[in-house]
Design a protein that fits this description.
6 helices, alpha/beta, two-stranded parallel ribbon, Alpha/beta knot, 6 strands, four-stranded parallel β-sheet
């Protein structure tokens, strides 16, 4: 995630839905005025590189799900999350790279009906987080 604004919006969304942990890579920063109470209630851990983190989460029993427009992706309309899920959001401009995509168990995609063909990363994350929480209202917390 390149944008501190997008990351702050994602942290705010996680706080609203009771998700207590966000993992970010790179020079991640949170704007408290955007994240609001999420800045206090959501733990944000920052790592240099995503692939080793995904490997560790998978070995901890999480299903690693990317949110990306990719070959073989499944429509979020029909997507069934498992309770122990890690949702991976890519870079705003370049998405998930090949090394990251190779580490995913599954890929979900939000179907687009018009132009442009993609949503903002924070907006997409919010939609997917909402859908996960709709399916698993008591499974919040975790990674």
């Amino acid at each position: 995630m390149r944008s501190h604004v997008n990351l702050s919006h994602i942290v705010r969304t996680c706080g609203c839905f009771g998700i207590t942990r966000v993992i970010a890579c790179g020079a991640a920063g949170i704007h408290g005025r955007i994240a609001r109470d999420g800045a206090e209630s959501v733990e944000v851990s920052v790592h240099r590189s995503l692939p080793p983190v995904l490997d560790r989460l998978r070995s901890d029993g999480y299903e690693v799900v990317g949110l990306e427009q990719a070959t073989g992706s499944e429509s979020l309309f029909d997507f069934s999350f498992v309770s122990k899920t890690v949702l991976v959001i890519g870079n705003e401009r370049t998405g998930l790279d090949a090394d990251e995509l190779a580490r995913l168990d599954r890929v979900a995609e939000i179907p687009m009906a018009g132009m442009p063909h993609s949503l903002n990363a924070a907006t997409s994350a919010s939609i997917a987080i909402y859908e996960y929480c709709r399916q698993w209202p008591k499974a919040r917390g975790g990674a």
